[in-house]
Amino acid sequence: MVKTSHELSRTIAILCECLRNCWQLSEDMERVGENDVPCSCSLLMATAGYDALASILHQKSPLINMTTFEILFEFLGLSFRSPE
User: Fold this and answer.
1) Is the dihedral of CA 71, 72, 76, 77 positive or negative?
2) What is the DSSP code string of 22-72?
3) What's the pLDDT tens digit per position in 4-54?
4) Who's near 49: CB < 8 A, 6+ residues apart?
5) Phi, psi of 47, rounded to the nearest 5 degrees
């Protein structure tokens, strides 16, 4: 279990790197839980893996530091160094 800000930022960096380099993992992250809901709700669950990540980050919010923000924003295509 993550207990420090450094451990959280390293864990998030590993996840982002894996998602960036493996399209299958990225698709799996989007489909987590999809088979557990009726078809009419499948669009709502399309990002269940990312919702789980958001929930974990919410629980660990006291540990989130600038490094973690930079990692997440870079993964989303935003840059602190050149905020164009």
Assistant:
1) negative
2) -HHHHHHHHHTTGGGS-GGGTTTTTTHHHHHHHHHHHHTGGG--HHHHHHH
3) 999 999 999 999 998 889 888 888 887 765 555 444 444 444 467 888 889
4) 28, 29, 30, 31, 32, 33
5) -120, 30
